[in-house]
Amino acid sequence: MQAINDISERHAEVIGLKVRRVTEPAAIETVSRLAGDIWRDHYKPIIGERQVEYMLNRFQSPDAISKQIAVGYQYFLLFCNARPSGYFAWLADTEDQSLHISKLYIDKPQQRSGLGRRIISVAEQHCRTQNFRYIWLTVNRHNQFAVDFYLRNGFVNSGAVVQDIGDGFVMDDYRMVKVLSVAEQ
Fold this sequence. Notes:
The protein is an alpha+beta fold. It has 6 helices and 9 strands, in the order E-E-H-E-H-H-H-E-E-E-H-E-H-E-E. Strand 8 (156-166) and strand 9 (169-179) form a beta hairpin. The radius of gyration is 16 Å and the shape is globular. Residues 17-181 form the N-acetyltransferase domain.
């Protein structure tokens, strides 16, 4: 099995995903535009327009994404019918034997289609190849749609995390953890 871009291409195709690693400026721009569309649509009712714009600029601008990639985050674009339909990013911690999914966003027309579940499967497969013990992420605690999604997919809420992100804003999240059983590895 040929590994491409740190994800098994065969595994991604078997579960019906077209996934491409983001490394080039044009792909970074695509992720940033997609983030703007998804975040503005989904998060305005949860955290308000001002915080959405602040977070997009701070965390999902082309410059911010490039800096994250430079320190080890891996970004991936998800395609449906040759159209960018979502993205995800993770950061591996070999010392802790864990994978932090820092981003997992699907555009509205593709939500509830199983794509998020398939991305979790790709992350689990990656963990198996690296002998990682668990996957973790944070999710806004008022984003019940996403909290329920992660619970349905084997994650456990391990508690609240409130993080000051500047300009008077905080991320008010839950830390969600999925421990991989020995049989899964």
